[in-house]
């Protein structure tokens, strides 16, 4: 019964979205306020209806209602509660339902907090948002209905893929979707602005918080996924350049570019049409990402044939929205007259370079990701494009970005002197070169990656600190320190995000350059040495988990005769899904992780054991969190609250004082 | 071709039942550390054919193990890196290479990054030139004409 309610609510939401996509658009065109106002209650209603639908599905999962096909395929009565809930979005149908719910949430937010927007723009934004919704409601209802019943319910379910039964992955998809779908807001703003034929500083200020929110969720989502891969897949890789990963990384790169170009629109009224194009592309890459993940066309050639209907449907959605938006762009972009003028060496110039590097790198990832498909379709060559290509083609862009970032971030607007800026960065330059030289001298291998990566990371972090310090003016240190506290949140956000990028750079370089690995057969009681650590395999025993069987080892890690930890790597078998997983045991540390994996019993006795020393591993995800924190700080800046200001009624015709 | 597809399908069907293993197992490791290091580096460049998107160095699949053993056999037999890779490509096709070759149409892939960067830099430079030209024009528009400056001098002189 509850499932039927959910099903019905979903169909109602579809109908509401159709109304919301059409009526306000006509109203905005004709200037009828009543028609435009329809968008607001419609957005709220849509959000509530999809919410009901989502909770109905969650209820079915939580109560293990095995008359629902989806629950049978993806759940099991013995599964822990957390994974019963996360199982709702751990599959195609449920995750698409979450997708549209978040889409409706963003639309709702624009309706509730968008009071500061001109009525016409808001009506158009909500209509475009609803149009995207219509397409995805149709997709769910006609190709991926989560509420299908089975005539003969089985006794129990088939369980969720054990790899997905993990706290890190439980929250990975919602964050990723908040990011993916959040970019639909930037898209809706861009298309609405094109319809209006007008982009100004105010538009830049309105679109930026949405992009910022989407970008920071995407950052957290990607970091969670990468962290999960690190501890779950059993050998501590953190990025694989898998098509599905690239699908989330491309919108991230474009969103990062968009964040920066929207600043130029807001502050200087330049780069307008480019910013609009980026906003369209950012969501375009989100849709491409959804297509890649949902159709399976790139992960495995077979999956596409399994479900051509879904792939084709998403491809049509992609073609419709990108084709429509880009046509509108081609027709209207010429009218976006830039106002601000600036010299090549200026903040605007630096942000343009930032945009070029980020956007081109996103296209490089895109090209590499779809190349196997292109090669097979047009050249009849079956080939793979893997990490060696991406590392070679993509990394130079990030290195270039890291080199110019601290310089660009303190260049003055309009016109600047490079010499003056470099003089203020003297300290940071000396420090980074010193770190590079020191690391080069101290390291045991001959890798250039480590010293360069750590030097660049230091350069980013120290450059961001110099940036903050320069913002405090020219008086004595005490009053500058005082002023530091009162700097706008956006300044802090910028510095913190850039520091985060530096920290991640250090982590990636350190891990890739100095990882140590040891593979051996160890007998119970045996002690072996890896790096500076002595490791003893003390015991191996069988443990019964809630829905799995585990072979668990007790391994003592010692350094100089002092016990650091007793770790319990596991090897699990999930009998229902007939799948084994490795659960690595990790001793986290600031400077290094100790990463232990236990394998099969060997024929001659003993167990296969793998030990990794992973230097600076945690810096990768810590840096990502710091980046997201920077985004959050920036998002809470006063000027967005004033802009979204919205909630406070103000007399018509009065410009809000800032 | 049909046989290969069949083989892949069978491997896919059996994969979940196969004994779960590690990527590189202790019994695969070569005695000679230098040779083993070469084998590891080469393994990272070769794709496990039955996996989603893993190199044979990372994969647990049986086929990946076979390929690792084959690669080590070739290295022990004295093959150079290129010879060993070619040996495997001859048998399993170009699909096995994670680093696409720089031949034929693949040149477009390898050149895409530098070409797109040059194109973007060119467009960006053009934009900058227009913006700074606009700056000069704006400055000129604001500057005084000769008559105006003469008059200004006149007024100031008095």
Automatic annotation (TrEMBL), chain A:
<dbReference type="GO" id="GO:0015232">
    <property type="term" value="F:heme transmembrane transporter activity"/>
</dbReference>
<feature type="transmembrane region" description="Helical">
    <location>
        <begin position="6"/>
        <end position="26"/>
    </location>
</feature>
<feature type="transmembrane region" description="Helical">
    <location>
        <begin position="38"/>
        <end position="62"/>
    </location>
</feature>
<feature type="transmembrane region" description="Helical">
    <location>
        <begin position="491"/>
        <end position="514"/>
    </location>
</feature>
<feature type="transmembrane region" description="Helical">
    <location>
        <begin position="125"/>
        <end position="144"/>
    </location>
</feature>
<feature type="transmembrane region" description="Helical">
    <location>
        <begin position="96"/>
        <end position="113"/>
    </location>
</feature>
<feature type="transmembrane region" description="Helical">
    <location>
        <begin position="274"/>
        <end position="292"/>
    </location>
</feature>
<keyword id="KW-0201">Cytochrome c-type biogenesis</keyword>
<keyword id="KW-1003">Cell membrane</keyword>
<feature type="transmembrane region" description="Helical">
    <location>
        <begin position="448"/>
        <end position="470"/>
    </location>
</feature>
<feature type="transmembrane region" description="Helical">
    <location>
        <begin position="312"/>
        <end position="331"/>
    </location>
</feature>
<dbReference type="InterPro" id="IPR003568">
    <property type="entry name" value="Cyt_c_biogenesis_CcmF"/>
</dbReference>
<dbReference type="InterPro" id="IPR003567">
    <property type="entry name" value="Cyt_c_biogenesis"/>
</dbReference>
<comment type="similarity">
    <text>Belongs to the CcmF/CycK/Ccl1/NrfE/CcsA family.</text>
</comment>
<dbReference type="GO" id="GO:0017004">
    <property type="term" value="P:cytochrome complex assembly"/>
</dbReference>
<dbReference type="Pfam" id="PF01578">
    <property type="entry name" value="Cytochrom_C_asm"/>
</dbReference>
<dbReference type="GO" id="GO:0005886">
    <property type="term" value="C:plasma membrane"/>
</dbReference>
<dbReference type="InterPro" id="IPR032523">
    <property type="entry name" value="CcmF_C"/>
</dbReference>
<feature type="transmembrane region" description="Helical">
    <location>
        <begin position="616"/>
        <end position="635"/>
    </location>
</feature>
<keyword id="KW-0812">Transmembrane</keyword>
<feature type="transmembrane region" description="Helical">
    <location>
        <begin position="207"/>
        <end position="229"/>
    </location>
</feature>
<feature type="domain" description="Cytochrome c assembly protein">
    <location>
        <begin position="89"/>
        <end position="295"/>
    </location>
</feature>
Automatic annotation (TrEMBL), chain B:
<comment type="function">
    <text>Possible subunit of a heme lyase.</text>
</comment>
<dbReference type="InterPro" id="IPR038297">
    <property type="entry name" value="CcmH/CycL/NrfF/Ccl2_sf"/>
</dbReference>
<feature type="signal peptide">
    <location>
        <begin position="1"/>
        <end position="23"/>
    </location>
</feature>
<dbReference type="GO" id="GO:0046872">
    <property type="term" value="F:metal ion binding"/>
</dbReference>
<keyword id="KW-1133">Transmembrane helix</keyword>
<dbReference type="InterPro" id="IPR005616">
    <property type="entry name" value="CcmH/CycL/Ccl2/NrfF_N"/>
</dbReference>
<protein>
    <recommendedName>
        <fullName>Cytochrome c-type biogenesis protein</fullName>
    </recommendedName>
</protein>
<keyword id="KW-0201">Cytochrome c-type biogenesis</keyword>
<dbReference type="InterPro" id="IPR051263">
    <property type="entry name" value="C-type_cytochrome_biogenesis"/>
</dbReference>
<keyword id="KW-0472">Membrane</keyword>
<dbReference type="Pfam" id="PF03918">
    <property type="entry name" value="CcmH"/>
</dbReference>
<dbReference type="GO" id="GO:0017004">
    <property type="term" value="P:cytochrome complex assembly"/>
</dbReference>
<keyword id="KW-0408">Iron</keyword>
<keyword id="KW-0732">Signal</keyword>
<comment type="similarity">
    <text>Belongs to the CcmH/CycL/Ccl2/NrfF family.</text>
</comment>
<keyword id="KW-0812">Transmembrane</keyword>
<feature type="transmembrane region" description="Helical">
    <location>
        <begin position="107"/>
        <end position="128"/>
    </location>
</feature>
<dbReference type="GO" id="GO:0005886">
    <property type="term" value="C:plasma membrane"/>
</dbReference>
<keyword id="KW-0479">Metal-binding</keyword>
<keyword id="KW-0349">Heme</keyword>
<feature type="domain" description="CcmH/CycL/Ccl2/NrfF N-terminal">
    <location>
        <begin position="12"/>
        <end position="156"/>
    </location>
</feature>
């Amino acid at each position: 019964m509850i499932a039927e309610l959910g099903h019905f609510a979903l169909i109602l939401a579809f109908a509401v979205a159709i109304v919301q996509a059409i009526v306000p658009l006509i109203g905005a065109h004709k200037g009828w306020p009543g028609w435009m106002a329809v968008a607001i209650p419609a957005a709220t209603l849509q959000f509530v209806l999809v919410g009901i639908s989502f909770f109905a599905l969650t209820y079915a999962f939580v109560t293990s209602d095995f008359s629902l096909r989806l629950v049978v395929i993806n759940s099991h009565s013995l599964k822990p509660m957390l994974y019963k809930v996360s199982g709702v979005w751990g599959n195609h149908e449920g995750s698409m339902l979450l997708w549209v719910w978040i889409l409706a949430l963003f639309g709702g937010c624009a309706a509730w907090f968008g009071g500061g927007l001109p009525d016409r723009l808001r009506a158009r934004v909500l209509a475009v948002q609803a149009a995207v919704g219509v397409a995805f409601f149709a997709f769910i209802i006609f190709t991926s209905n989560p509420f299908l019943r089975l005539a003969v319910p089985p006794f129990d379910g088939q369980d969720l893929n054990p790899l997905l039964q993990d706290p890190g992955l439980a929250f990975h998809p919602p964050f990723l979707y908040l990011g993916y779908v959040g970019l639909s807001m930037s898209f809706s703003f861009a298309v609405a602005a094109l319809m209006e034929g007008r982009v100004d500083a105010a538009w830049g200020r309105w679109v930026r918080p949405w992009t910022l929110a989407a970008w920071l969720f995407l950052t957290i989502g990607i970091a969670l996924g990468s962290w999960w891969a690190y501890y779950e897949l059993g050998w501590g890789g953190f990025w694989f350049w898998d098509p599905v990963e690239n699908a989330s990384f491309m919108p991230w790169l474009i969103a990062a570019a968009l964040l920066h170009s929207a600043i130029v629109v807001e502050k200087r009224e330049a780069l307008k049409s480019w910013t609009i194009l980026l906003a369209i592309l950012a969501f375009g890459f989100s849709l491409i990402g959804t297509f890649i993940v949902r159709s399976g066309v790139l992960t495995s050639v077979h999956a596409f044939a399994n479900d051509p209907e879904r792939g084709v449907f998403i491809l049509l959605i992609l073609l419709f929205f990108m084709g429509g938006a880009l046509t509108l762009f081609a027709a209207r972009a010429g009218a976006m007259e830039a106002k601000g003028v600036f010299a090549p060496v200026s903040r605007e110039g630096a942000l343009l370079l930032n945009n070029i590097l980020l956007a081109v790198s996103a296209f490089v990832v895109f090209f590499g990701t779809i190349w196997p498909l292109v090669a097979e379709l047009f050249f009849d060559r079956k080939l793979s494009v893997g990490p060696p290509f991406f590392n070679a083609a993509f990394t130079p862009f990030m290195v270039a970005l890291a080199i110019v970032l601290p310089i660009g971030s303190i260049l003055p607007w309009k016109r600047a002197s490079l010499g003056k800026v470099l003089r203020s960065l003297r300290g940071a330059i000396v420090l980074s070169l010193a770190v590079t030289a020191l690391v080069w001298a101290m390291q045991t291998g001959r890798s250039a990656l480590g010293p360069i990566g750590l030097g660049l990371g230091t350069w980013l972090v120290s450059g961001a600190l110099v940036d903050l310090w320069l913002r405090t003016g020219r008086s004595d240190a005490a009053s500058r320190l005082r002023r530091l506290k009162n700097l706008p949140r956006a300044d802090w956000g910028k510095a913190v995000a850039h520091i985060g990028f530096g920290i991640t750079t250090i982590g990636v370089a350190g891990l890739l350059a100095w990882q140590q690995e040891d593979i051996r057969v160890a007998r119970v009681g045996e002690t072996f040495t890896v790096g500076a650590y002595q490791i003893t395999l003390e015991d191996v025993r069988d443990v019964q988990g809630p829905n799995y069987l585990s072979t668990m080892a007790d391994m003592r890690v010692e350094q100089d005769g002092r016990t650091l930890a007793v770790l319990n790597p596991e090897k699990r078998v999930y009998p229902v899904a007939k799948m084994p997983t490795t659960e690595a045991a990790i001793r986290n540390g600031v400077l290094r992780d100790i990463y232990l994996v236990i394998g099969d019993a060997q024929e001659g006795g003993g167990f296969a054991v793998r030990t990794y020393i992973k230097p600076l591993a945690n810096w990768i995800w810590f840096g990502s969190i710091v980046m997201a924190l920077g985004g959050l700080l920036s998002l809470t800046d006063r000027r967005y609250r004033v802009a979204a200001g919205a909630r406070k009624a103000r007399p018509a015709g009065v410009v809000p004082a800032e | 071709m049909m046989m290969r597809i069949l083989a892949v399908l069978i491997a896919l069907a059996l994969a979940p039942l196969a004994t779960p293993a590690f990527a590189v197992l202790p019994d695969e490791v070569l005695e000679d550390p230098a040779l083993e290091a070469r084998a590891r580096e080469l393994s990272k460049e070769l794709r496990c054919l039955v996996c989603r998107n893993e190199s044979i160095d990372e994969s647990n699949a049986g086929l990946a193990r076979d390929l690792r053993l084959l690669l080590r056999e070739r290295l022990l037999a004295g093959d150079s890196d290129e010879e060993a890779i070619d040996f495997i490509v001859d048998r399993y096709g170009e699909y096995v290479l994670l680093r696409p070759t720089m031949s034929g149409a693949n040149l477009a892939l390898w050149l895409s990054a530098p070409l797109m960067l040059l194109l973007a830099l060119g467009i960006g430079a053009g934009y900058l030139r227009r913006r700074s030209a606009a700056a000069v024009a704006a400055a000129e528009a604001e500057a005084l004409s000769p008559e105006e400056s003469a008059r200004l001098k006149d007024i100031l002189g008095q």
